[in-house]
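ARCHIVE CARD
CATEGORY: sequence design from structure
SOURCE FIELD: tokenized fold
FIELD CONTENT:
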């Protein structure tokens, strides 16, 4: 897990100042996201449906059929993941999705640490022709806060 870092923008000496917004990682540490990253996430979120961990739990309890896909990094997955999820990290999902889930009409719920990377991955899958892609807003952090079932490798 990357160490949080603080950026003191008023002290910046460069001409180009990057705007940072603070979020919190799974361990409660601050994460810095640049405005450029947030812009592409918000753009993706304008096209990708979202749900919550509570919605996913309800679907599971109702016996609905869907794929739950963790798009986090390998080291994040190994520390723990939602029970029943499969792992296709954001770095390889476009390459491997059609082997793992060949049905472009299958419902796919993606999650990451908080909902940003999953929105970006969902946008890419939709561009590949997947019709029912959902990003789980709140991601792993919210899943754990709710005490939902997890597995570890």
């Amino acid at each position: 897990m990357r160490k949080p870092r603080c950026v003191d923008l008023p002290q910046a000496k460069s001409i180009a100042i990057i705007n940072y917004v603070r979020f919190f990682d799974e361990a409660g540490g601050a994460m810095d996201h640049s405005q450029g990253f947030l812009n592409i996430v918000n753009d993706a979120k304008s096209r990708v449906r979202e749900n919550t961990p509570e919605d996913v739990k309800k679907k599971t309890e109702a016996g609905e059929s869907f794929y739950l896909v963790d798009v986090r990094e390998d080291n994040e997955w190994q520390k723990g993941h939602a029970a029943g999820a499969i792992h296709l990290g954001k770095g390889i999902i476009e390459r491997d999705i059609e082997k793992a889930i060949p049905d472009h009409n299958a419902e796919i719920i993606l999650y990451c640490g908080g909902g940003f990377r999953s929105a970006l991955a969902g946008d890419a899958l939709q561009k590949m022709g997947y019709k029912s892609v959902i990003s789980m807003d709140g991601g792993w952090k919210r899943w754990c806060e709710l005490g939902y079932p997890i597995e570890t490798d």
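CARD ANNOTATION: The two ends are 17 Å apart (CA to CA). The domain at 48-151 is CATH 3.40.250.10 (Oxidized Rhodanese; domain 1).
SHELF: design records, drawer C
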